[in-house]
Amino acid sequence: MKNIFVKDFMNTGVLTVKPDTPTIDVAKILFVNDYNGIPVVNGQNELQGLITDYDFIEKGSAVHFSPLGNLLEELTIFRKNKEEIDKKIKALIASKAGNIMNKEPITLSPNNTLKEAADLFVGHHRVNPVPVVDGFNKVVGIVSRYDLIKLYVDPVFWMKLLAARNRDN
Q: Contact 23/62 with Cβ under 8 angstroms?
């Protein structure tokens, strides 16, 4: 069988956000859709960055949600100084997607192979999902680790791929 390409299994119905989307809205989109990440695009659908769940918990992030140990320490400080609570809440509300996105995300091309996509996930443990961009840096799809696992057990995918290959020959 010929190579399986990213374009054969990528998700094409990609939800995206703009750099000026409030961070709180990005968090809601990730939560409601059970996503690990979302591409940030400009008005021409060109990739500007990527926000993942990791960006929300990373130390130093503009909207850093502290690990439990630091949270207890911060609560002590906040109890003494209400202004600190107000500052943190205002910073969270004012923050935009462009403030926390990874501005140089790893990407795939529709013509990368399944093996290349798998190797990318193996080599970059924190990367998930990965935007798929065309030659003009426009988002045309997205691939996650789940998509690779799904290929092992999705007979519909294999039947569609085989039918498409037979049509092409």
A: yes
